[in-house]
Write a structure and sequence with these properties.
alpha+beta, 9% strand, binds glutathione, 4 strands
Amino acid sequence: MITLWELGGRNGRRYSLFSWRTRMALAHKSLAFESKPVCMSDKAVIAFSGGKTVPIVKDGETVVRDSWKIAEYLEDRYPDAPTLFGGAVGRGVTHAFNVWVDRALVLPMLAVIVADVHERVEPADEQYFRESMEKILKMTLEEARNRRADAMSRLTRTLEPMQALLKRQPWIAGAQPAYADYILFSIFQWARVMSPHPAIENPLLEWFERVLDLHGSFARNVPVA
Ligand SMILES: N[C@@H](CCC(=O)N[C@@H](CS)C(=O)NCC(=O)O)C(=O)O
């Protein structure tokens, strides 16, 4: 059995966007796992991993931290289960996409949903979350809430290439869903779990619904905002 350490929010929410990539990769490969929710501010509980972030997985005696490294580990360890990358070239291109999403989309989405996320983290994390997010965004949570419309416009502009792509093919990875889909999906699942304001339009919205239906609606049936 694989164990997954990930952020736990109020009422059973699982809101770490990077952990959603791992969750979807595990579901894609039909690997069962046990979820260990942690607080963002509690670094002692994940010190065994040698780092300060989740996701972390433990598979037997093997501990892997960082969502990209976990995806590579799962692909190499479980080669007979459905592929996440579709070979070496696919792995390289998926890595490029991972970097693009992290650099281009995480901050614009954070600016849209940060105040909503703050209302749904565990009370023990409220202060830590506020301080670290205000430092990253260089504004208070209240300012972020007031500037939400601007942040939404920036996000929509950045997503335009993905909207264009999804008019031409059903999945980010092409004819079949694969890890590239889960990378982009994680951005919107983060918003779905923690914010009551929809931040997604068609055709992206239809694609998102398709991903929610995958693997027995694995990602659909979870506590959301
Ligand atoms: N590159 C890492 C990023 C992981 C990351 O930033 N995780 C966040 C949660 S979504 C975290 O653990 N943050 C802890 C903190 O900011 O103290 C990955 O892909 O796993």
